[in-house]
Amino acid sequence: MVERVPRQSIVLEAGTLWEAVLRRSEHALRCGALERIPTEQLVIEDGGVRFLVRRVARLEAKRAARAEQTRLGASPFLPCDADLFVADVSETHLCVLNKFNVFDQHLLIVTRVFEEQESPLALRDFEALWACLAEFDSLGFYNSGVVAGASQPHRHLQLVPLPLGGGEERLPIDTLLRAPGRGAECWRAAGLPFQHGVVELAACSGRAPLEAAQALFDAYRRLLGQLGEAAPRPRPYNLLVTRDRMLLVPRSREHFGSISINALGFAGSLLVRDAAELEAVRRAGPLAVLCHVAR
User: What pLDDT sits at residue 2?
Assistant: First the structure.
């Protein structure tokens, strides 16, 4: 019998990503390629979760860049900005800084050729994601199209360092996602009042990188199946992945009023543009905001 040789698609050198991120961030800030979006952070407690709500000081540059991209019909990743490039991750993906960032060291894991953001994720996407997650404690997330809060049609996963807001929890939503001993079983958190599925990923940490990626991919497909989204082209959803667990939330709409919600909302972090939007979140409560945009 001929032995199968495993694919070796990861080219990122282990133990190098975090230093590369720091070096490139310093360079990109110095040359003006990276434009931080200044925010004021507040906390709104709801359902046992200390939601982080960031009020933006200005978004003009991001709006102008998006309008110009729409006019040209171009992908900002083909080619990517050399001043934002961080590392080659795999034969199919590379890693760049998010040009307009609210969180420091916010990364995008981008396909080298154009792939649709709304098409199903593939094993190669999880290979690239796990290669980056394994480098430092972080949250990986994915917005599967405009309804799920994606701002670009070119396939990209995202990564932000943890803890997300400086509190006791790595993610604010972690207070509702504690279920020891669940293993690979798909389950629901009693405190989340909207459709979702969770899978524990503790077993991934002891596996070889490509085996861990396969486990992530299998968990993703189980969640899609459990939530009735295993069609050739799933309806919109948000995916959140840490080294510990995976959370998938189907979406029905992008906005609560004028507020766009992406995957970070389901991690417990919301972004508002002004005092009126902040008051709308405070009045309704963050969990009601999430229920409005989920299914």
Answer: 38
